[in-house]
Each structure stands twice: as structure tokens, then as C-alpha cells.
Amino acid sequence: MERTTLGRTGLSVSVAGLGCGGHSRLGQSHGHSTQQSVAVVRAAIDAGVNFIDTAAAYGTEGIVGQAIRDCRDQVVISSKLGVVKPGTNHLGQDFLSAAEFVQLAEQNLRRLGTDRIDIFHLHGVAHSQYAYCERELVPALHKLREQGKIRFLGLTERFVQDTDHRMLRQALQDDHWDVVMTGFNLLNPSARYSVLKQTQKKNIGTLIMFAVRRALSQPDAAIAVVQDLVANGMVRGDLMDPENPLGFLSEPGVADSIVEAAYRFCRHEPGTHVVLTGTGSTEHLAENLAAIGKPKLPEATLMLLQNLFGQVDSISGN
Ligand SMILES: NC(=O)c1ccc[n+]([C@@H]2O[C@H](COP(=O)([O-])OP(=O)(O)OC[C@H]3O[C@@H](n4cnc5c(N)ncnc54)[C@H](OP(=O)(O)O)[C@@H]3O)[C@@H](O)[C@H]2O)c1
To answer: In this predicted model, what pLDDT tens digit does every residue of 112-123 receive, in sequence order?
Structure first.
């Protein structure tokens, strides 16, 4: 597994990271047992993945803790905490105080069974929440860092609602963040200009989420999303087969599947360090890691994708 340096953190990380959230949550959303999910994390580590992303909200920190018990020092742990009081509207203003935030972060550490989290993010921050986060929670993150409980400060966006990265565009004007996580995929590559240019300039570690999600892993979802974009005049329908609009991605000489093309698209985008893959299936994991290890998509395919979806900033592919 290829490694890269995660921006200014200096951490050496695998270019593929295991995402323990998303729709699958290591298969917990599909009824997997704890042991089955632990086996997915172990399979990723055995395949050379050293970057593991989880969060309080996913219910998978304990699983990760079990899986890394014997190899804590060989992995980079990324975890997160939301910014509103548990049980309240994620997009609302019922914020955790700095003291509550620090107290809850201790629970992340306990669930993970570790004394330090390498990257600790404010999780899924909306644009309307950023000012509070900057004022009240950045000092809390610094306090945790001074105590040695976290090593680097991270920030993730709420991509399903914030498809054009309004929050990160503001946050990247500050100098607080060592690492950010952004939504990026071949249907909505808008982070290329609004996020990745800035992260490269500031040498900020950059994690990619939503490489695949539903729209690029389920054929019916792909058709629905593309039809919607065509109907709204965002994308030219005459350049695609209406019954199989993304079929050109799995033609000979391009990629073996749409999922493979989707991961390769993200992996080779300048400015991306770690592409997260979220799965509860060891078969999907093996396929996805192989895809992330493959070369860039052909230039003609990239050009077609740019012509089709290059201007899209209104969907996440969720
Ligand atoms: N705001 C935030 O902070 C935020 C939000 C969302 C996600 N994230 C992070 O980003 C990570 C990546 O996002 P994601 O989990 O949505 O990942 P993703 O890789 O874009 O999509 C994963 C989804 O596709 C399915 N899938 C994966 N490989 C497949 C394959 N080869 N064939 C068919 N289906 C496949 C998975 O289900 P199976 O289990 O069936 O494989 C899962 O439902 C998350 O796990 C989480 O760590 C963060």
C-alpha cells in the first residue's frame, strides 16, 4: 500500500483509509456482529492501511479499539465529536460548551482504548455553526492537545447539506486546521477549486469522503441522480446513455467497474492525501484497495467527466 505525508502533520499515512462511518459503519448498519466488523478493520490493517477514521456518532470506536489493541502504534487514528449537545439537531445552535466538549472527548479516548487520538475533528460542521466552533471549541481542542490527548486538529464538513463547501471555504481562511475532510467525487468535484487549492497552498492534510456513497455504488441511485442533474439543466443528457448514464466508466480500457473508476478518480486528484473507503465487507474492501492502487483514469475519460460534471456543486451523491 502506497504511503504519503499527511500535509503539515508530517504523519506517514496510507493513501487508502478505512472509513468506519457512512451508510455501512463497518457493516454495523447491516446487522454485522462486533467480531465481523473487527475482522474488517484487521483485514484493512493486514492489507497495509494505517489510517482509520471513526467518530463518536458512528458507534464504531469500540470496534476500532478492539482491532488495534495489539498494534496501536502502527496506525493513525482519526476520530471526531459533534459540536451540538447529543440528541439535538445536528444543524442547530444548541452547542456543547468547551467544558462539555473536553469531557465528552475523554469518552472517545476510553472507547478507543488509547491515551491519544492522532487527529481529532469537529464533526460535520455547518457554515452557520463555524463562528461558534472557532470561538469556543478551537480553544478546547488546544487544551486537549496540550494535555497530550490529541495530536492534530481536524475539521469535517456536512457535505449532504453543504455541497459547495461553504463552511470549509470560510474555515480555510483561518490557520487552525492541520487536517480537513471534504466530500469529493466524480459527480460533484467542486472541492477541486474551493477546497483542494487552499489545502495545498497551506499544506493541510486532506481526507476525501463520499468517493462512492450510494450514487456510485448502486446503479439505480446513479440513474436517479444523473436524471435529476439533466432535468435541472446541470448536465448534458445527450452525452450519456439514459439507461446506463455512467456505463462509459466500465468500458474496456477505462475501469472494471464504476466503483473502481470512482475511487481512482479521487485517488489521483492533486491535493488529496487519503481517500476513505467505508465498507462492512472484506470483499468490497479488497476490491476498493486494489482500485485505489490502480493508475489514473485515461485522460479522455477525465475530460468527458469534466465536460459532464465539472460544474456540479449541488449534489453529494449520498
Ligand atoms: N462529515 C463527516 O465527517 C463524514 C460524513 C460521511 C462520511 N465520513 C467518513 O468518510 C468515510 C467514507 O464515506 P463512506 O463510508 O460513505 O464511503 P464510500 O466509500 O463513499 O461509500 C461506501 C458505501 O458504498 C458501499 N460500497 C463500498 N465498496 C463497495 C463496492 N466495492 N461495491 C459496492 N458497494 C460498495 C458500502 O457498503 P458495503 O458495506 O456494502 O460495502 C457503503 O455503503 C466514512 O466511513 C466516514 O469515516 C465522514
So the answer is: 999 999 999 999
